[in-house]
Records
---
Amino acid sequence: MDIPEDGKIKNLSTDCVIFGFSDETLKILLIKLAAEPEKGEWALPGNIIMRQENLDDAAKRVLKELTGLEKVFMEQVHTFGNVNRFPLFRIITVAYYALINPDKYHPEAGGRTSDVRWFPIEDLPDLAFDHNKILDYALNKLQRKIRFEPIGFELLPKKFTLTQLQSLYEAINGVKLDKRNFRRKILNMGMVIELDEYKEGVPYRPPQLYKFDKAKYDKLKETGLLSN
Amino acid sequence: MDIPEDGKIKNLSTDCVIFGFSDETLKILLIKLAAEPEKGEWALPGNIIMRQENLDDAAKRVLKELTGLEKVFMEQVHTFGNVNRFPLFRIITVAYYALINPDKYHPEAGGRTSDVRWFPIEDLPDLAFDHNKILDYALNKLQRKIRFEPIGFELLPKKFTLTQLQSLYEAINGVKLDKRNFRRKILNMGMVIELDEYKEGVPYRPPQLYKFDKAKYDKLKETGLLSN
């Protein structure tokens, strides 16, 4: 039996890639490691999986222990297991990811973590182990995913401008989009509803406000943007 | 250290979901288990990962050992690790998948395998362990993938009819498609080239032949079907 008495599966871990979107910026939640190896380095929140724990449950527990974040819906993204990815011994890690609104959570360092902080994706420190590679993989997956599924419902205010929605897509893709094309595509999808309201505090040509059509949005989540 | 001297990581395995397409049918490659537990049951080709082996290499080795198949390009699909998924002790498995042309390979049972065989996806035996669940997951991923990326290049003859191409999409999705819509979409993608040739041996209104535009096909593989 490979699993020791203390209940840890020492060659299997989970790492959480938590993306956040606020202030028109894509961010990533990192912890500062309080123990060797790589003490003092920034890393993705991650730790060893326990013997009596399903993988999804392990990811939730580890995220909560290290960052205080709860009730984050994470999806498995990929398993990384190259022979030398961890310096001391062989560890295979199952990576999870999520995209959340940072304003709704209050990170707090816990466990073997001395700090926890949001970093803008465009201004990241070098990460410990192979965590830069894991992050890149997850970002790529997120970029592909938003071509398939609607996003924004929990990330934008209830009423938003199309410019705000566009800045979300731009932040994730890391590219500027053509305004007219973007508006045409978004309106064609039918997931937003035009409101008879305009953004306040904008004196000249205030932009129109929109909201998500929740029923349509949920349906598209299920069937995908290409279904029609 | 959790890894014993014999070089196996006993709580980590890999399973291979090998889809095949021929005779207008989607198939799956299964092995018959020659050892307990579940001796005599059909299963996905899978086995324990070695200590000095990257995950991708392990999948290739296991597939070759159990089925004789080589040079199959597999992608990782998901890691399954529920506490009780294996009856004897905790095993987490990293699943890989591929879609190949069965006519180009010659399966041969090896290792702890007493038989290896293609089964039509619509007429499967009950599989060992949680392999039905793994297969379903991989099929779902394949179905999503073909909405994104072109398929068919290595699965159809060099010159094919649009009906043959349609039957590939239908076999994977398990649904009948509308002929006119399908043709319009495929031709819009620009990945097939109309030939000035017609299928032989069809006396009345023989169907026109097409071939893939390799350059366009490869580009779409890279950028995705939604890029334009």
---
Amino acid sequence: MVLKNIIQEAYHKVNSIDDKGQLASYIPELVNVDSESFGVYISTIDHVNFGIGNCHDKFSIQSIAKVLSLSLAYSILGEKIWSRLGVEPSGTAFNSLVQLEVDNGIPRNPFINAGAIVISDILLSHLKNPKDDFLAFVRTISNNSELNYSTKIATSEKAVGYRNIALCNFIKSFNNIENDPSEVLDFYFDLCSLEMSCKELTEVFLFLANNGYNNNDNSTIVTKSQSKRINALMQTCGFYDESGEFAFKVGLPGKSGVGGGIIAIHPNQYVIAVWSPKLNKKGNSYKGMRFLEEFTTKSELSIF
Amino acid sequence: MVLKNIIQEAYHKVNSIDDKGQLASYIPELVNVDSESFGVYISTIDHVNFGIGNCHDKFSIQSIAKVLSLSLAYSILGEKIWSRLGVEPSGTAFNSLVQLEVDNGIPRNPFINAGAIVISDILLSHLKNPKDDFLAFVRTISNNSELNYSTKIATSEKAVGYRNIALCNFIKSFNNIENDPSEVLDFYFDLCSLEMSCKELTEVFLFLANNGYNNNDNSTIVTKSQSKRINALMQTCGFYDESGEFAFKVGLPGKSGVGGGIIAIHPNQYVIAVWSPKLNKKGNSYKGMRFLEEFTTKSELSIF
Amino acid sequence: MVLKNIIQEAYHKVNSIDDKGQLASYIPELVNVDSESFGVYISTIDHVNFGIGNCHDKFSIQSIAKVLSLSLAYSILGEKIWSRLGVEPSGTAFNSLVQLEVDNGIPRNPFINAGAIVISDILLSHLKNPKDDFLAFVRTISNNSELNYSTKIATSEKAVGYRNIALCNFIKSFNNIENDPSEVLDFYFDLCSLEMSCKELTEVFLFLANNGYNNNDNSTIVTKSQSKRINALMQTCGFYDESGEFAFKVGLPGKSGVGGGIIAIHPNQYVIAVWSPKLNKKGNSYKGMRFLEEFTTKSELSIF
Amino acid sequence: MVLKNIIQEAYHKVNSIDDKGQLASYIPELVNVDSESFGVYISTIDHVNFGIGNCHDKFSIQSIAKVLSLSLAYSILGEKIWSRLGVEPSGTAFNSLVQLEVDNGIPRNPFINAGAIVISDILLSHLKNPKDDFLAFVRTISNNSELNYSTKIATSEKAVGYRNIALCNFIKSFNNIENDPSEVLDFYFDLCSLEMSCKELTEVFLFLANNGYNNNDNSTIVTKSQSKRINALMQTCGFYDESGEFAFKVGLPGKSGVGGGIIAIHPNQYVIAVWSPKLNKKGNSYKGMRFLEEFTTKSELSIF
């Protein structure tokens, strides 16, 4: 199988490179991982699966969970969700608070923290038992009842999440948060604490390579149009101020997390998940970015 | 032919909508067009061609020319071109000068004015007769010797181009312009004054749907990798602060101009050009955006 | 007495003007005042005192209290206080969060909310019973044991103080808050809830017209150098983004509050306090600003 | 004489300090000065005059000239001048272009470059022979026919003034420049090239310590109200983003230039001029700032 060979070759090439990245330091608990871990897993809609390295080790998916909370909220509210937040790249990380001020509390997109906090607020208003219901959603779409939050990680982040408290209260001051800020943040930190392996990530995200359908039972998770739009959003906004670079070098919609995970989606073809915990200066996995660039260059499988 | 039917249907639907756009006012000469014009043309790499409405009328392509100047400069310098400018979306139009200040004169991407001015400076340093050589490039790749600049438009813009003069001198103050600012701007205004019809636009841009190859003689205009990367840049940065919206609603790499033209590219499949001169509030063709949204929704042919 | 005549004349002239201001709306409790109130009181270091209008009615002094908390903190820590915040005008109100981000959590001056919150944090770290000790300080310098906080106002502001919660947590994320943010804010909201009349305000603030000495018993409240510097800070930063305008039109160091109060100080001469609750667009008392302009123009008693 | 002793003492103390400043580098010609120069001159309205060090050496007064062009324009147009620019501090140097964008081409005050360029434009519209007429104004108020521009300095700055060209054209794009940008800039660079000694500077600026009257013949140069307002503007905006620091530490209205000169005014008392060409990080004379701090601390003669 060609894909398998390309993955193996790219994996070994990147694994031999000196990793210049740094472990995320802002969540204390995140430093307690093996910094040399490096795993890759791919799942195609034709049921081809292949993994290498630490592809079965669980890690904190962090911001990758923002795609899942958006998917659930989008499936519940449809297009009217966009009255609460935008679909534009935010320029630089540095600008996020500036732009909230300029845009009167409307986050620019669902993948910056401000936007994900608004999505959490929406889910809080629409779910009966938000924490349980969201977990049930993730377990159902992946047919994997073992997925779970990490209380340790959530607690660790809550203890130092001053900037997110600032963001949430700032948005609340513009009346774009309906619930109590501390409840919104609690739920938000729980979402980000989801733990999965690369293999499990591809099982969860395969619906976005499959036009919104569950690849097992063909049920609709989000509509075809919503699936395309979520992918478009990942393409333009998935990597903070490195989104352009990722589109440019990798050429696939994707999303990263500060735990060192990245998922990338080739619509109608496959999902690939990479994990390596040391991050580059923009906060994305150093080896993960390098691997995906190598992979799409070799496979010539980008969407462009 | 299905494509033809979809285009006809979308064209008539959008043409019947009340056009809420406004003619561009900042270049005096641009108001002298028939504001009701509306044309569409598609060319596939399989040599299918189809047009409707004012698809044979020439108009000022303005910023669409930035893709062509980038293509020529990129083919000459290769990747080292990115030491002079970035590949990230700029956030908002409103931020462009701010970000130049923060980023020390390095424009965020080649499609904001600042970036296109730097590209003009690069071409000025590398071409013998910049104005003639660039025109020759455009004529060659489209096999159309009738393409030309509009002296009227260029002169009209030069007379009021204070903001671009400001941008160019500002970048020069950071040492990121090599040539005399007034020469750089002269060349820049000439580039933007290129005139073409929708049909001609598709002939010029077909190479970006064809992995960088000329669809007629198979010669290499830019490399396959460069072609993919130019498309990725159009996807993330082609519509100023409406780039996310375009990716979200249309789902194709594209580029707009204040003359009311838009090109969009489906890699490995086709180029589509739309022209309607009244602009929405973000400076993109009102009907053009609506048409392309309708078109990709109906055809389900987005890249996502 | 000349001063008395000038004050009477200016008072009646301004009182007859149509008041275009608006009551502050962001603290619910603040709207429960008589919007037509208008009082003025002056105290000179030569023991001349004169008042007019509602000069004996108590009102919420709000941000005017920031001068008092600064004075106490400055007298305790001396110049090393400036490692925690700056002495520069902040440009515009609109920029405050931006500049915190650019300046890594160091507020530009002690009179914007961010700066006053840092001062509250400092007092919290240095006072045994912060709330009681601060009140004792204010009572002592004015020899007025009836001064007090308003629980109603403090509670009202705490219930909607999302933006200040955002500010405090944002600064905490830069490690420039030592205590628990909710305790800092509690104390901050208490400070701002102090209630006084114009007459009482002049008694409290007379030390700043008297080189830092208590005008009754000649004890040192702050040093002469500190007194001059606090006055300089009021001159450049006392009126948010209307500080330049106040220096320009009134020409005295001063400080305003959203309760509609303003104090102004003529070093070595007098303190004048004005109160009228309707605010102009920049958040300063409409009649208060007009009165002080009239007063210093007529008296020619500005410091310039 | 006490003043004389204080000046001598402060001069020697500061002169013995290691000067950590740097010569201005952005105007090539400015580096051709003796970097160790250090002069001080004071003139009181009671005709006391005293100088020390290089107080008779001429140097490029640069931005100090902005106070003179403002004075002339203000005396011609009166208050309606403020429809073209503001009276607020600009926050940080870094913000100037940002704020022009936010404020639609209205500079925040007459002492940032943007504001001084607008003042130049105003003079250009109102003077018959702008360059000659302005020089005549400066010579008349100081009764010194030997004052002159430096062609060398003006030419040197014109050759590299890209950032000012950017500013002027940017303001023009907002319709806040009436004349041709290149003529406005020519005049602006001429103004800034004025050369004087510390002694001559005090003669030119004595009117601002004298309520707008010429101290020799008692003629009105600007009105008393205008004089107070110009002083207020110097207090809040005279030192770019070190204006607060200067008010805080020195406590006098003043203006600096990148040639290393500073003037400071004590209304109703004196003008003091200092010159030392090495600049601190904010672009103000390192020794000059230190001297004035020492001087007002020792003399206790600040306005606060």
